[in-house]
Each structure stands twice: as C-alpha cells, then as structure tokens.
Please model this.
Amino acid sequence: MDNKGYSGSCDGLSATQKKDCVKEVQVEKKYESEPYNRYLCGIGGFYPNCLQRYATRKVYVLIYSLLGLVQAMYFAYFVAVSTTIERQFKLRSQITGILVSFCPYFQAI
Model:
C-alpha cells in the first residue's frame, strides 16, 4: 500500500479504514497545494469534495451567466411594473425614477 501523504491520524484503524483515510489525506493535501486552493468550489469555509468536480471555468461562466439573466429579468420586470405602481399609489414620476435607480441596491438586500 502506498503511504504517500500518510498522516498519523490514520493510526489504529483497520486496513480498509486506513486505506480510505490515507486517500482522504492525499485528497486534502492535493487541494491544499497552491494551484488548487484558489479554485475550490464551496462557500465560506465549506468545500465538500463532492463539489470539487464543478470547480471549472465552464461551470463558473454558466452560473455567472444564469445569475446575470435572472438579474436582467428582475430589472426588466421592475421597470415594466413601475408605471402600475406609480398609478396605484399615486406617486410622482420623480419618486418612481428614484426607486428604479436604486433597484440594483434593492437586489442586494
């Protein structure tokens, strides 16, 4: 058995468990190295191994594009509905314009 990357934390385990433990340690060491630690898939400090296959440029571009599409749809809907809001609540066009200009900030909230 190859003990490359073996950690003492795997001591006292059965042969099968030790083999799995050594594999986990090797994977952890692989992702701790410089080229990998900048591109882990996860959020905050949570980077499960099952998500690491999605840490690619293609997936990033796909998610970024979908988020941009959702944001554009929201903004278009808000602008289209602003005249209805204006009429229903008897707002002046200036107030509606201010609401539309702050729309990107409302999305963050």
